Amino acid sequence: MKLYVVGLGPGSPEQLTPQAEGALTQSNVIIGYDKYIDLIRGQFPTKHFLSTPMKREAERCRMAVEKALENNTVAMVCSGDAGVYGMAGLIYQVARNYPPIEIEIIPGITAACSGAALLGSPLTNDFAVISLSDLLTPYEQIEKRLHCAAEAGFVLCLYNPSSKKRGDYLQKACDIVLRYRTGDTVCGYVRNIGREGQQAVVLTLQQLREAQVDMFTTVFIGNEYTLKLGDKMVTPRGYRDV
Known about the structure:
Layout: E1 2-7, H1 18-26, E2 29-33, H2 34-40, E3 48-52, H3 57-69, E4 73-78, H4 88-95, E5 102-106, H5 111-119, E6 120-121, E7 127-131, H6 139-151, E8 155-159, H7 169-177, E9 186-191, E10 199-204, H8 205-209, E11 217-221, E12 227-229, E13 232-234
Parallel strand pairs: 1-4, 1-5, 2-3, 2-4, 6-13, 7-8
Antiparallel strand pairs: 8-11, 9-10, 9-11, 12-13
Helix pairs in contact: 3-4
């Protein structure tokens, strides 16, 4: 009667941690969002898989807790890290309404880290991670966070930068940041990290404002110290004598 909450990393098998692979191997039921289940179904063909579409996260968590209470070892899977815009927090919230079960969170490589590695080293110093999705967070709060983080000089890592209903949200975010940074600030974005169609692009903040991105893109906005070294995006930590 155990429930793992497992971060799968970006999606490629080689970026699934040994600890995560061990938890999935020990589980007899694996539950997750449709697209995340598709990433691992071939690796664990003997498991019993259950999935739900987008926007049914609470239902998915209840299903996982109830399956664990039926004396199963269950894995709830998330992309990236389960505690970064993942299901870890919601699992704990849902589980408090049921008899006690053992819950273990298995960390994974989040998009901030895997995307940064593809671009170079944009997050070497202080940075802030902000999701532009207003599905669960009011847009006014997102705007306030963008203003505060940009004014404070943080490198920004933006999750969920655009969707069909939010086609101009990255443009709006760039307009906010442009109040505090120049248009030639070094930026980057990575699409489909660790999956087919992977793409990493380094560009300026002004160019980023016009870029076409989607929900599978992670965006990085540099600060005044961020450099373009060759084709890479690098934010120095210091070491000014090199």
